[in-house]
Design brief:
The structure holds 3 protein chains of 3 kinds. Chain A is mostly helical. Chain A has helices at residues 17-66, 94-125, 131-150, 154-172, 184-214, 219-228, 234-251, 260-263, 269-278, 283-290, 292-297, 299-321, 326-346, 350-384, 413-416, 418-432, 438-453, 455-480, 487-490, 497-512, 523-529, 542-564, 575-580, 582-588, 593-669, 676-696; strands at residues 71-81, 84-92. Chain A folds into 2 domains: 74-89 and 173-594, no CATH class; 596-684. Chain A has 26 helices and 2 strands. In chain A, a hairpin with a 2-residue loop joins strand 1 and strand 2. Chain C is built from 6 helices and no strands. Chain C has helices at 3-24, 28-48, 52-77, 91-112, 131-140, 143-163. The longest helix of chain C is centred in the middle third of the chain and has 26 residues, at 52-77. The chains are: A mainly alpha, B mainly alpha, C mainly alpha.
């Protein structure tokens, strides 16, 4: 078996499987009873399931305080073939408990928020019956994510990996019949799934190589063998880690597989907040940090990881500057921040990566939920101003003339939605990295480490941070300041507490989150040291900290000069267009990456598939081969058998036999003359013959 | 009579063959019947010859029984011929050929 | 050539001639008469072979009763004339041929394959062949066949009656 199994040691550890069980129980209850028992029941069940998981996670945390090495909790044996043993087992250690706490905590708040958000959303889209389904998928996602972060072997982790991918697809395409042309949401979901699949392919190859090299799939054994055994060559380790990197770029939306994340904003806002900001996209970073042993040994791969992360951070930040959809800005911001985390993991600053992961979860979820709040407020305003979402401005393919997500339709919401404005401001400042909010500490740690290890990375990340500050300033000024630029904005109003209270909760976390790993105290570093090898505490670099703060403030001031001095008026084009000129168009069109992929990958692939389907499968295989060769030869054979063989030979044999019998019997009949004398004669002849036989034998 | 038994047997054989010729050749049913009696008679002769040559009376007893049975047989046979005559108005055996295949 | 042999030859010739005549005569009554002659001659042969009782039985039953029965039926049916018409013309020649073959075989058995047939026989007692000695055997050893034969005769009688019994007189 494995080397360090501490099966079910300590009473509290044995409760760990409940973390996965509670969301599954929640989704089953909602599946069976949800429709009948109403929205409130469904929402409460789903949220309680996640809250209970959070409580169990806290119990694990307490258990870990007493036993910092953690434990492996065995649930069941899954695969036992030859030397391969893959169990359903949980690895409860500081890293996984950190992830679990973050995921369940943020999920719980988002579930509560979603109760209110979805209540409005299903009515805006026109299908109240879909409420229960949303929470079923949401709970399924939490369960899959728990499997991912608590697995003790690659295969179980892959199950969770695929599970979250599936839930992402289901939730992005939640309104599958809506979107541009009645199909855009479904296409976005498909895009997310397919692009993720490319990443999953990388993960799979990495898993195969790991099994081939190490003969086992359990983390503890693999890491032990990698460090102390002599089984893995550097080339093999590099190959394994590079394939893992492919998986990371898919799941965590890095270059080249980040294209699905902006399209994923087609899903409802709680989905964007939970899956595409706080949890699923962090799975890639978790993978790298978990495999820190392997990445630490394969230095080339680590460098590649860092470069990809840094470049992604920079490019995504530039794209965010040119976006008008409020959620798209946040989506590219997420890609950029994930780039920060990936770069940190690449340069070996695993603690910094996890730290930023946690704080990012807080403020990005906050920003998304607040953006959702803004959108819902706008939709209410739209309703109030006499236009219903599905009413006057609605044409056949479900395209709303008025886009509640477009920032150009907003403005002046500072006075209309006060709570939302305040929490959004907190989130924006945290993201920008203004001390003493959480983002400052985590981002600063990354920058400090980069400055020490890899200067080029540091420069890229620093520039990305400048852009981050700028586009957040642009967004806040566009949305909340100035005069309302549409009727809907004029009539927008604040949302009920079921939505605003979670926002406030997240805002508080965004403020105090920095306390997790304050420089000098390094609580998180100590905490994670038990799990991660080669962890060192980052020294506080005053120069870097001050420089980044000053640069951020300058960027905000620039944003204010562009958007704040003269607020954007209704119908006025973005002033940045004039300033940057063609560069703005490049940013706005996201470097035409999607079009590029479409041209060189999608279109050839689709025409190849069409070729195979129409020409080879249909015309060649079906029409020619089946019809001509098989069918005709079969018919010919059947005809030959029937006419050429059955009729003459078989019938001939049967008839011939009958004819033979008939002629024989006709001839034999001549013996029956009817005359008694003839019969007597034959008797006599018989007598003579018998007598002669007796005599002469 | 001191005659070689084989001569007696030869006579018996000749009588038998003559009787068989009668059965095969004649068409009158009654004559055929009489030929059959001739054949039986030849057998009787053989029996008596052997009874004499082996000095065993059982041969003669056999002949006694043969004669008795022949009598019974003649009775029934002639009754049959009579009843056939009633149907066919003829005792030509060649007329009784309706079982011709 | 002993007396016996000459006697035998004469009797044998008579037997054969009467038999052949029976065969050849066209009139059924003549055939019957010839057969009677045949039986009587054979009875004489029996006498010579010390089978006195049997000879008497032959004459009484065979020649006397059976042939009389034959004659009755011939007269009854008016069958004295020979049948007319030719059918199966190939049968008589073939029959004669086969008869000849059978004769050859008999000759072969008797004179080629020399079996130990006694050429001269020993003398017998006067009681040999007498009714008394036959009766001894009949009622002693052959009692059961004797009784059964009587039943047989009864059955034959009944059978003959039944076969020739006409049903109710139907209008002709």
């Amino acid at each position: 078996m494995n080397l360090s199994e501490v099966a079910q040691s300590g009473g509290l550890f044995s409760y760990a499987p409940l973390i996965i069980a509670f969301p599954i129980l929640g989704l089953l209850i909602n599946m069976i009873f949800g429709r009948r028992l109403g929205e409130r029941f469904v929402g409460i069940t789903a949220s309680s399931a996640v809250v209970l998981s959070f409580i169990v996670a806290i119990l694990q945390f307490i258990a870990l305080l007493g036993e910092p090495e953690g434990a492996q909790v065995m649930m069941a044996d899954w695969i036992t073939i030859g030397s391969l043993s893959v169990p359903w087992a949980l690895k409860v250690d500081s890293l996984s408990v950190t992830m679990i706490l973050m995921v369940t905590g943020v999920s719980a708040l988002i579930h509560i928020y979603a109760i209110g958000y979805m209540h409005d959303d299903v009515r805006f889209q026109g299908d109240p019956g879909r409420f229960a389904r949303f929470f079923i998928f949401f709970n399924l996602f939490v369960a899959a994510m728990m499997v991912l972060v608590s697995a003790n072997n690659y295969l179980m982790m892959f199950v969770g990996w695929e599970g979250v991918g599936l839930c992402s697809y289901l939730l992005i395409g939640f309104w599958y019949e809506k979107g541009e042309g009645g199909i855009a949401n479904a296409i976005a979901g498909k895009k997310a799934f397919v692009v993720n699949r490319i990443g999953d392919f990388g993960f799979l190859i990495a898993m195969f190589l790991i099994f081939w090299t190490f003969g086992t799939l359990q983390f503890e054994e693999v890491f032990h063998l990698a460090e102390h055994g002599e089984v893995a060559s550097l080339g093999m380790l590099t190959a394994i880690t590079l394939f893992m990197l492919l998986g990371v770029t898919g799941k965590s939306a890095q270059i080249p597989l980040f294209v699905w994340l902006p399209d994923a904003m087609a899903g409802p806002t709680p989905v964007s907040a939970l899956i595409h900001a706080a949890t699923m996209v962090t799975a890639g970073i978790y993978l790298i940090v978990r495999n820190n042993v392997l990445f630490g040994l394969a230095h080339t791969s680590s460098d590649v990881v860092a470069i990809i992360g840094a470049v992604t951070a920079f490019v995504a930040a530039t794209i965010a500057v040119g976006q008008f959809d409020i959620k798209r800005v946040l989506a590219y911001s997420t890609i950029s921040q994930l780039g920060f985390m990936v770069a940190a993991a690449g340069i070996g600053a695993y603690v910094a990566a996890i730290f930023h992961l946690v704080t990012h979860a807080f403020f990005k979820a906050l920003l998304f939920l607040s953006a959702g709040s803004v959108i819902v407020g706008l939709e209410h305003g739209l309703h109030d101003s006499g236009h219903h979402g599905e009413g006057d401005h609605h044409d056949e393919d479900g395209h709303h003339d008025f886009d509640p997500n477009d920032m150009r339709n907003m403005g002046g919401l500072r006075t209309k939605m006060k709570t939302t404005f305040l929490v959004y401001l907190v989130g924006a400042l945290a993201l920008t990295g203004i001390p003493p909010l959480a983002g400052f500490f985590s981002k600063d740690e990354i920058l400090a480490d980069a400055n020490q290890e890899f200067m080029a990375i540091y420069i890229l990340l620093a520039i990305a941070a400048i852009f981050t500050a700028f586009y957040m300033g642009r967004q806040v000024l566009m949305v909340f300041f100035g005069d309302p630029r549409s009727d809907a904005a004029k009539r927008a109003r604040e949302n009920p507490p079921v939505m605003t209270l979670p926002l406030i909760g997240l805002a508080i976390l965004a403020v105090v989150g920095g306390g997790l790993n304050l420089p000098g105290i390094h609580s998180l570093t100590d905490w994670l040291e038990h799990t991660l090898a080669h962890v060192h505490a980052t020294e506080f670099n005053l120069f870097v900290a001050v420089l980044s703060t000053v640069l951020a403030l300058i960027a905000i001031w620039i944003a204010w000069t562009v958007y704040g001095r003269r607020f954007l008026q209704e119908g006025q084009p973005d002033p940045l267009r004039k300033i940057l000129g063609p560069l703005f168009t490049v940013f706005e069109n996201k470097y035409w990456v999607d079009e590029f992929y479409d041209l060189i990958i999608v279109r050839p692939y689709v025409s190849l598939a069409a070729f195979f389907a129409d020409v080879i499968d249909w015309r060649f295989w079906h029409d020619w081969f089946h019809d001509t060769i098989i069918a005709r030869s079969f018919r010919g054979t059947a005809r030959w058998l029937a006419e050429g063989f059955d009729l003459p030979v078989i019938d001939g044999a049967a008839n011939g036999l009958a004819n033979v019998v008939k002629s024989f019997s006709t001839r034999l009949r001549a013996l029956q003359t009817g005359y008694v004398r003839n019969y007597a004669l034959s008797l006599f002849v018989g007598l003579i013959l018998v007598l002669s036989y007796i005599l002469f034998r | 009579m001191n005659v070689p038994t084989s001569y007696l047997l030869a006579l018996s054989g000749v009588l038998f063959v003559i009787g068989a010729m009668g059965v095969l050749t004649r068409r009158n049913a009654i004559v055929i019947f009489m030929s059959i009696e001739l054949m039986l008679n030849s057998a009787n002769l053989a029996f008596i010859a052997f009874a004499r040559s082996f000095v065993d009376l059982q041969g003669q007893v056999m002949v006694f029984f043969v004669i008795a049975v022949a009598a019974a047989e003649v009775a029934v046979g002639l009754a049959l011929i009579v009843s056939i005559f009633r149907t066919k108005q003829s005792i030509d055996v060649d007329q009784i050929s309706s079982l011709k295949g | 050539m002993t007396q016996d042999l000459i006697l035998f030859i004469i009797l044998a010739v008579i037997v054969i001639i009467t038999a052949v005549s029976m065969l050849l005569s066209r009139n059924a009554v003549y055939s019957a008469m010839f057969l009677v002659l045949n039986f009587i001659t054979v009875a004489v042969i029996y006498l010579l072979l010390n089978a006195a009782f049997i000879a008497m039985v032959q004459v009484t039953v065979y020649a006397g009763a059976i042939m009389v029965l034959f004659l009755f039926v011939i007269m009854l049916l008016g069958a004295e004339k020979a049948a007319k018409g030719e059918s199966l013309s190939w049968q008589p020649p073939l029959a004669i041929l086969l008869g000849g073959a059978l004769l050859m075989e008999f000759a072969y058995i008797l004179f080629v394959r020399q079996t130990d047939l006694i050429s001269s026989v020993e003398s017998v007692t006067k009681k040999f062949g007498s009714p008394e000695s036959i009766g001894d055997l009949l009622f002693d050893r052959y009692l059961v066949p004797f009784e059964i034969t009587s039943i047989l005769l009864l059955v034959a009688m009944i059978g003959a009656i039944i076969i020739t019994h006409r049903g109710k007189k139907e209008p002709q």
